[in-house]
Design a protein that fits this description.
single chain; mainly alpha; flat
């Protein structure tokens, strides 16, 4: 389902998940309130994954939009909606004391970290899943053509 929406989305979501696991395994031992650390982190990770999915959906919907100005307006409106949603998540978490706001922020930043690391993660996944190296060579050839 995710691959039909965007080719990079599954790898992006996987990267966010790996980032969350790494932060959970390393940081929980240093935190005084382990429950709030973990809940804040995973609220942030789920928020980051939802943001990634929403961004991919908006891109897929607006690519075939006939009017470029309306598409631009739609992308801006959806971007503002995402910011409002993130502020709402922070507000709800703070009001109901559901988790640590710093780890929530770190979890949301998983989207940025995963986006930066997605090309490297893609290469690792391609190496691991390549059968005999032939598909990896084909992918490298395609990547070289795209970069030119």
């Amino acid at each position: 389902m995710f691959r039909r929406l965007n080719q990079a989305l599954p790898e992006l979501l996987f990267g966010i998940l790996i980032y969350g696991i790494v932060l959970q395994l390393t940081g929980v031992w240093l935190a005084e309130d382990k429950l709030r650390y973990s809940s804040g982190l995973w609220i942030g990770i789920v928020t980051a994954m939802a943001l990634a999915y929403h961004i991919a959906r908006v891109i897929a919907e607006t690519i075939d939009f006939p009017d470029a100005e309306k598409a631009r307006t739609r992308i801006i409106a959806k971007g503002i909606l995402r910011y409002v949603a993130v502020v709402a998540v922070f507000g709800i978490t703070m009001y109901y004391d559901l988790g640590n706001l710093i780890t929530l922020f770190l979890g949301v930043m998983g989207l940025k970290i995963s986006a930066y690391l997605q090309p490297a993660l893609h290469k690792v996944i391609m190496k691991v899943t390549a059968k005999g190296g032939a598909s990896l060579d084909k992918m490298n050839e395609i990547e070289r053509e795209v970069k030119m």
